[in-house]
Amino acid sequence: MAAKSFSNFKLGVFVLAGLAFLILSLYLIGKNKNIFGATFMVKAHFRNVQGLTSGNNVRYAGIQVGTVKKITILDNEQIEVELLIDNKMKPYIRKNANATIATDGLMGNKVVNIIPVPGNANPVVPGDILITDEVPGLDNMISTFSGTNNDLAVVVAELKRFMLRINSSSALWSVLNDSSLSRNLNVSLENIRQATARANTMVGDLDGLLLDVKNGKGSLGAILTDTAIAENLNVALMQIKHVAVEADTLAKELSQLTRSIQYDIDQGKGTVNALLKDSVMTRSIHISLDNIQQSTHRFNEVMEGLKHSFLVRGYFRKLEKKQAKEAEKDREAQ
Amino acid sequence: MFSSRYWKFFFEETGNIARFAGRLFSQWGKPRYEIAEFFRQCYIIGYKSLPLVTLTTFIMGLVLTMQIRPFLVDYGVESQLPAMVGIAIVREIGPVITALIFAGKIGSSIGAELGSMKVTEQIDAMEVSGTNPFKYLVVTRVLAATFMLPLLAILGDVVALYGAYLGVNMSGVTSFELFWAKVFKYLSFSDVLPAFVKSFFFGFAVGIVGCYKGYYSKKGTEGVGQSANSAVVLSSVLIFIIDLIAVQITDVLNLN
Prior knowledge:
Radius of gyration of chain A: 63 Å
Largest sheet of chain B: none
Strand order of the largest sheet of chain A: 1-4-3-2-6-5-7
Number of strands of chain B: 0
Helix content of chain A: 55-70%
Oligomer: heterodimer
Strand content of chain A: 5-15%
Shape of chain A: rod-shaped
């Protein structure tokens, strides 16, 4: 009997490690299958469960929340599916939620999807029967696909013709091949960008201006906002109006005057008319002017005679001598 | 193919093992209990086998993953690799590989140990000295093998899954968390529990066959070698037979 040729410690660690992993794996599986933890049960009635079996997953908005507990046939049209759902989900699943049977992936297990529906409803209580929605199965989908396929074939044929036409169009290809096009386009876009940038600045400035005006800054602002200026302007306008009225009156009076003068002229009355139209008067003026001419001629003769008279002859001689001297001086200077 | 002599031997052997097992069952509930010897055997049979089991299951997990991978890649379901490997390991590879390694190591050692004791007449001496050799030698070993193999299988599963994780990450990147989640997403109690239960039977088979072959070893050195050899062969075959029966039972019970 080999006494203590082994280590109890190592054996204990070994046994506990094995048991711990066993329990851990059982717990993890149980957690996945909702065996531990509080659950509650709701029901759903389907016409066709499409191969759903107990133990399949239940998802709420894509989150794993429980499993299918039992499937029972109610009558020839209805199958009752009992769903075990985590208690934590109770507040979130509403009475108006929709239950459908779907496939996990393309070929995976069947799952029951509980889909939340917008709108207010009370949370479910255990034993509630959820509203169900029949989702088309794979067979229906395939039959739909065949119709879609035919349509698609037509569309593809049209597309092919379209593409062939595009391919045979030399104009389009030349446009596509033109390298300068893209450059020009680039430049244009750059210009547009600059223009918009400027427009933007302009709008900004305008905005500032409008803000200034609004705040009563600048002359325009003053005009628009200063009440005193507005009043003065009003007064000025009133005066201008007044002046205009007077001018109007003046013009009217002038018009009357000219009209009366015109009338006088037409009728041969008044001074103006006499000035402009009376031939007798013009003749008498002529005679007067002739008389004046004769008078001045005669006065000239008288004055010549006077020059030769002895009384003033000496004076004239002196004048002549003085004039001769001055002429001599001018000649010497030249 | 087989002569009538062979069949006679086969049925005799089966009957003897059944009788041996019956004797075991009638003995193990009765005092006096060999508790200390039982724990010593647990240490030798369980703990000492751990490195070997760890190595083999680790390699098995890694290799299995790398072997399955190309096939899954062909089908475009590479992402299901952890789930697939996990199921294979937990349901079948873990328990069976562990049991076979266990049979090779423990079955042979029990057979050789008891055989040499028989040959050197230690068993007879034990009987004379008042110790029940069957209780002291057989019951403790069979019980230790029965209880230790499931633990080894569980630890082997864990190590194999780690190997599979490394295998998955050799040609792709999968976080340990995702791997873990994927493995456990598809595992159910019907995968873990039948595998766990059947590993008790594997352990019992290895223990009882080893003890039987050793206890009734033929005289002489040759007899010891023969008993060790036939213990390994028979227990390995029994493991597969039990596996076959276990899968039928789980199928009938609709646990698959």
